[in-house]
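Reply to thread "Modeling small-molecule complexes from scratch"

Following up on the discussion above, here's a worked example others can learn from. I took a protein sequence and the SMILES for adenosine-5'-triphosphate and predicted the complex. Inputs first:
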Amino acid sequence: MLNILRQLCCFFGENKTKVLFTLCLFLQLDGRVEGSVDSREKVLEFRFDYCYWSVDPDDPQHASQDKVFQDLGVSVLSAASEGYNVCLFAYGQTGSGKTYTMMGTPVSNGGQIQEILFNYLIGSNIYSGRSLIVLLCSFLEIYNERVRDLLRGGEQKKRTSLRVREHPEKGPYVQDLSQHVVSDCKQAMELLEQGISNRMTAATHNHDASSRSHAIFTIQYTQAILENNLPSETVSRINLVDLAGSERADPQYCKDRLTEGSNINKSLVTLGIVISALAHNSQMSSSCQSINTVTSECDGSSSVSGGGARRHCFIPYRDSVLTWLLKDSLGGNSKTIMIATVSPSAACYNETLSTLRYAAHARNIVNKPRVNEDAHVRLIRELREEIDRLKNMLLSFEMQRNPSPSLSDEKEGSLSEMVLQNELKVHMFLSHTH
Ligand SMILES: Nc1ncnc2c1ncn2[C@@H]1O[C@H](COP(=O)(O)OP(=O)(O)OP(=O)(O)O)[C@@H](O)[C@H]1O
């Protein structure tokens, strides 16, 4: 088992100016630790939003699960309760602490998934009693590029692989994935434990219970509020992802292990390509905006910068099931946080460097999150607001009657007509939606 050096985290939410705290990590190759490494000293600098040390629990700097939750989990909770989609995913070498961070262990405090669920369910101060909240949970794994439902009962059903499809507005989804209403902590724990026990794990050289699949725990968080008699309903999707660990192939592994390994590597390579392409496009867009003279040429498909023509990259989301399912989380309508886990061992130098480069690329991505409000409910609210506005106008007309009665009568008549029409529209929408 490898010890955990740090869990680094980077945000790629709405824009980079939201960075709260930036820390430089100086990664030094220490030639004394392991014989086979390069003894020349290299200093590499990376910037992240948070940096955690969790090797020694007695160290005053030790970052507990709760500390990580206070920094990251709480921002997931508040973004979802504002109506945004959120994604929190853990990436890193095998054995570096992804599952520990996301799922926790029976002896440690819960991981981020449990903390997030419990905080919704016990309704800390994240939301007030005015709203109705419904949590729908699903839990899937991607094993050998196939999607399996981790919360299905029965042996046969557990092994069935499910199809990924794409909705024109809602984006990619898994057909027939079971969804479970969760209303208390006991229920939430049972679901989580059931899913974890159904997940594929196997012994590898570095880790005797290595996750051989990518796991995605999704909470669909619906919040209905009635404020001043005006309704609003937001539906946000929270994707909590524990990726399978990357590991170099060993010819001594059995065939199944090698197939698993090559599928894991394939999807992680695709993830890397997607992240690089998104980061490139985000940088292109920002340089496009900053160069006013070429704004007209930057029509979303190409731009000119530094004298040579540079184009937006194609994003190969569909090259792996993982990137297809996380399409919105990675480069679209979502506030996304990546946790990169690394090991302190000098033997892991190459993997650590690769993880840090991955995360540094991801940090350049600028997503476009938006509040996911139900379109019908929004229309009803807007019409009601308009009715109130028109009614107030009518009232003020009546109160200060104009010396020219014919004009004021005419205005009053058309205002009353508008109020009536809007009330009719609200009525039609309400009878249509019920
Ligand atoms: N911060 C930590 N403190 C204490 N123990 C930890 C910590 N991080 C990980 N561990 C322990 O290290 C072992 C490996 O961690 P974990 O299973 O989370 O790795 P992983 O990155 O998910 O590996 P894989 O990709 O192979 O599934 C586990 O026994 C876990 O409990």
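What I'd highlight from this example: The chain has two domains: 6-373, 376-433. The radius of gyration is 26 Å. Questions welcome below.
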